[in-house]
Amino acid sequence: MAEIKTQPMSTAGTIIRCPECGTANRVRPIPRGTPQCAKCHAKLPWVVTADEGTFAAETTSSVPVLVDFWAPWCGPCRMVSPVLERLAARFAGGFKVVKVNVDENPGLGARFDARSIPLLVMMQDGAEVARQIGAVPEAQLLAWIRPHVADPAR
Predict the structure, then answer these.
(1) Which tens digit of pLDDT belongs to each residue from 58-94?
(2) Is 77 a residue of the active site?
(3) How distant is the alpha carbon of residue 133 from its chain centre?
(4) CATH assignment of 6-148, given 3.10.20.30, 3.40.50.150, 3.40.30.10, 3.40.50.720?
C-alpha cells in the first residue's frame, strides 16, 4: 500500500494524493460527505493537519473524526502515525484523521488535557466519545475505532 501523502494548506484545504490513481486532490474542510478523487472517484483516505485556527472547521464532519495529538520528538507518536494512515486508507470515507502537533498548538493540547502523547480522541458531532492514550498495536487500535467508524462500501 502506498504511503498517504498530504500537505497542509491552512484554510485553503489539504492536498491528498489518491492511493488508487495518484492524482493530487485539494480537499477543503467539509461538514457533510467525504472526499473522493476528482479523476477516478475513489474515496480518499482523509488525513489532515489542523492548528488552532483550522481545528473547528476540520473537526466538523458528518463522519467520526479521530484527532491525533502528537509531537515530532515523540517516538511512540511516530509509530502510531503510519498505523492511522493505513486505517484511514482501509476505512476511506468512514472517518477522518485530524493531526494536531501539541508543541505548535498548546491551547488545543490544554483544551483536550493532552498530558501524555500520543493521545487519540474520537469525536462525533463535535463531542468527544472515546480516547486512547499511548501507542498500541494496530489490532488494538482497530478494535478501539471499529465501534465508531463505518466500513464504507467500496
Answers:
(1) 999 999 999 999 999 999 999 999 999 999 999 999 9
(2) yes
(3) 16
(4) 3.40.30.10
